[in-house]
Amino acid sequence: MKKALVTGCAGFIGSHLTQRLLNDGVTVIGIDGFIDNYDVAAKLRNLAEIGKHPAFTFHSTTLQTGRWDIWLENVDVVFHLAALPGVRNSWGKSFADYVSHNILATQELLEACLQRPKPPVIVVSSSSSVYGTMQGTVTNENAPLRPVSPYGVTKEAMEQICSVYVKAYGLPVTMLRYFTVYGPRQRPDMAFHRFFRQMMKGEEVIVYGDGQQSRDFTYVTDAVEANLLAAQHAVPGDIFNVGGEREIKLIDVLSIMGTLMNLTPRITYQNGPAGDSLRTCADIQFAQQRLGYKPKVALEEGLRHQLAEIRSQSKG
């Protein structure tokens, strides 16, 4: 890989991926539309160091502007992370925005890559939200897709449109289903970031639901590694679960956070919002076998890194 396009390069995972590519000597074209689903200042912080790199060219725009001849010139690999995230905000009139950013923009990208003399490899970021609330022990990629939120529906539809282009044209697309990614630069609306901030301020921690919901949490550098491995080893049409090292209940995560901060969290429980999955747990055997993927960062270590970054921001 000599040159890559990263959509959503100023976001949480996208900025980490861009930084890793640049460190590995790859020339990167980055696109980000600064959608105001959360504080744009956070995205600007993510770009602060990356933007100084001589091998990085940044375009501040949405994919819908369609300057594909410029963006895709001599690109070997496209990492497609641009999306409108978040389960809770995807209901009501906002659903049209999710359709635009998650489905229609992806189709435009696929069509543009198809027109290239040699289409680049395309690694598309999806979500465990396509599964809904998981049943049984662990969930592999062949499990039924039963999203319980409009956001999950758009991610499933995005996967379907990618699969159509693979089947019809052999376009080299692979998809990664992330299981709750966390770590430094995590979106401020996400649970871990919010919990740490509330505890640092001495506030009660607001937990939606009863705290017994469980998740498979994935540290951000492991998600980045999955992208790089998929670009190298995936077969067109492959779909991979990208998970962490274990499933854990949210209430137990809060206990770990409290230990790291030398305090006992004061918790207030509120009704869980519509669309939240009660349980996620990834079977990552396919990613292990095909890609050599293996999560390297344990939850306790990852939380320490995230806490250190939040404390550093607070001092700044």
Note the main attributes of this structure:
316 residues, alpha/beta, Rossmann fold, 7-stranded parallel β-sheet, two-stranded parallel ribbon, 10 helices, 40% helix, globular
Give your account of this protein's structure.
- The chain is built from 10 helices and 13 strands.
- The chain is of the alpha/beta class and 316 residues long.
- The protein has a single domain (3-182, 218-245, 276-296), classed as Rossmann fold.
- The strands form 4 sheets. Strands 3-2-1-4-5-6-11 form a 7-stranded parallel sheet, with helices on both faces. A two-stranded parallel sheet has the order 7-10. A two-stranded parallel ribbon has the order 8-13.
- The longest helix has 20 residues, at 95-114.
- The two termini are 36 Å apart.
